[in-house]
Input
Amino acid sequence: MDWALAGVIFGFLGSFHCVGMCGPLALALPGANQDTFSLVLSRLLYNFGRVITYSTLGVAVGLLSQMVAISGFQQVLSISVGVLLLLGLTVSAFRQKINEWKSYPSKFMKKATAPIKSLFKKGTMGSLFLIGLLNGLLPCGFVYMALATALTTGTVFGSLFFMAGFGLGTIPAMLTVSLASGLISVSLRRRLKNFSPYFIAVVGILLILRGLDLAIPFISPQL
Output
């Protein structure tokens, strides 16, 4: 369950990015005029829909991660992912290339996420849950970073638990945004996005340390 806890921490600390990027979608969710109980329930269904999608993606990534671990390249992969994250922050050429990679899923998923528009018109509990499921597929650099981290777990269950924890960790911030729209201004959401580079740097360093097999509990356990 260490990976589940790591995922929760990862999701919670990085959810400042979610507020900046996905905040507008959470604010625009239908059913804002419902009674308090229905409003909270609908927003929880939306967020749990995201968690289910992230968990499913975790299983897919976990299968690949397990193959890498069996091949004996788990440490190399962990260090490589960490280095790429740091290069993406510090070297403009790598940052440009990463932005290009991020645009491919955006083009691919455009048609797949089109049903969100029709679901917004319905505003039912079921439609909010489906919006959450589809929202988990929307192109997002933060989700890609979580998936890259899940890829280093070496097991299917490790990746599953990490991505499930990741989704759960983002719920407090996203739920707050959707329920208290007046408390989080556009300028505040923009400032919160400025924390993203620091968070990415920390994740990159931790992945490198993990791959170095330094026998440091939790940070660089002996593999």
About this structure: The mean pLDDT is 78. DSSP finds eleven helices and no strands in the chain.
